[in-house]
Amino acid sequence: MISLSLLPRLFLYPFLVSSVLAFIATFMVRAIYLRRGWLDDPAAQKHPKVIHTYPTPRGGGVAIFAAFMLSTFLFLGFDKHTVGILLGGLLLTIVGFFDDRRDLSPYFRLILGFVAAGFVVASGIGIAFITNPFGGIIHLDWPQISFSLLGEQRSIWVISDLFALLWIVWSMNMVNWSKGVDGQLPGIVVVAALVIALLSFRFTEDVTQWEVSIFAALTAGSYFGFLPWNFYPQKIMPGYGGGSLAGYLLATLAILSGAKVATAIIVLGIPTMDALYTILRRVASGRSPVWGDRGHFHHLLLDLGWSKPRVAVFYWIVSALLGLLALGLNAQQKFYTIVALAVIVGGMILWLRFFVLFSKAQGRGSG
Question: Which terminus of the chain, N or C, has less C-beta within 10 A?
Answer without folding.
Answer: C
